Prior knowledge:
alpha+beta, Pdz3 Domain, 4-stranded antiparallel sheet, 10 strands, 18% strand
Amino acid sequence: MSILVAILGLAFLIVIxxxxxxxxxxxxxxxxxxxxxxxxxxxxxxxxxxxxxxFRIVPLGGYVxxxxxxxxxxxxxxxxxxxxxxxxxxxxGPAERLKRAIDAENYDQARVELDAFExxxxxxxxxxxxxxxxxxxxxxxxxxxWRQPIWKRVVAIGAGPAxxxxxxxIVFAIVLMxxxxxxxxxxxxVFDGRPAQQVGLKPGxxxxxxxxxxxxxxxxxxxxxxxxxGQLILVVxxxxxxxxxxPVRAKLDDDxxxxxxxxxxxxxxxxxxxxxxxxFLTVRLTKEIGISLGNIVHKEGREQIASPIGIVDxxxxxxxxxxxxxxxVLAFISLSLGLLNLLPLLPLDGGHIVFAxxxxxxxxxxxxEIYERVSIVGIAVVLMLFFVGLTNDVGRLGGG
Length: 400
């Protein structure tokens, strides 16, 4: 069950990412042609206000269809209608007129020629052109992505990663409000078999002193980890009485830190304070993720990459620990997803933003051939990251 919850959580993050694009496009006047939850053939489909909404058979993520992501080219006519023209040579003339209109960037005339081509194809009983007609018509439309001002394109594309970032802040705030907050000196949990249990520390004890010195929550951690296994004397307040515990020695934990084996409680944060701390936490994590990406050329950086398999495994493990842990991991994944999509690589969102800005600076459009070549490089980089993450996950899950 925890694995299913983890998979659905990852799919949900992809859906809200696409919802960001969807509503971002609507907000700036680019009407999406469709929004789908899942992939593959549709299970249920409805059309409202010119937008197709669909639930598809593979419920892992989703996607939004924004019209005219690239400028139309004459070669589109051959790519989409080549077979139809071969079967019905009478369409050669209409196809050539359509290509000339596109080449001349006379898009109003191109729409007229496309309608004429579709009518001629219908009269000749030529099928299989619907997809091509729809694609070219969308790319010629007034609300096509490539025809919009740069700021509108940046809003529509940037809204996806932004939604993931905002979601992360909100969820971190919920976790901090419910289960996090300011650390206290009161013991919340004592772990079985650890030195703290053996010396008699109990949940509810408030630690007053370590080795005769008063302590704050931060000092408790520092004193224990800095003892390096030396003897410690603890003084706690229990049922209104001072109780001395020890001597006791901290032991190395799995992460090579000396610990006694207990967890301090936390004072819940208020709503505004939780949001503020969540923003600070998100900023710190963003810096750490950025450093990790910068260190990808080093072995240590590559070892931190995970594939969807590793993400699901980590989420599943967190789900077994409780809803707070699961939500915290989900927020971190959402943040990572948003930042990954901002990398300046096509076909990632960051690549589209960079190209939009580049076109603004150049004063004219960048040829589609350049888009396609840069996209090949971007896809290769993404596949490399996936392969590295998959290799890491196989090693971790297999015990390597």
